[in-house]
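User: Study the fold:
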Amino acid sequence: MDYKTLTTKDFHFIKTIESRWRDMDAIRHINNATYLNYFETTRVEYLSTLGFDLIRWESDSSVILASMKIDYLKQSTYPSIYEIGCRIIRLGTKSFDILSVIFDSESGSPIVAGIFTLVTFDYKTQQTIPINDAIKNSYSPLDSHN
């Protein structure tokens, strides 16, 4: 997948995050693990728009992160402002993939891309559950750039 061709227009959900001085490492670029925090913050907000309240521990309809694949495309430093997009690109019966890309807001270029596999989960019964209609309705495979 060529993430470098993506733009913020390929995403229906965008969150803006500003880097902080402490986000840099000894090499003076944003630390690779920091991007995972940016992704997580954005993903939690995106999922709330789909009806998931991840703050409620006793929820009977939630999600759990099963896997993630991260591709680092460019370096970035402080200060930077990022626009982070989320898009559901794969559906299963009990899981789905979110593509998330961090874009430099000044240049518009992608910095980091990740695919996150989430499983719909009932924390009360500790069982997987079928995906809901909000997830199904938000499905937008990459071949449909809209």
Q: What stands out?
A: The mean pLDDT is 93. The beta strands are 13-18, 62-72, 81-91, 95-104, 110-122, 127-128. The radius of gyration is 16 Å.
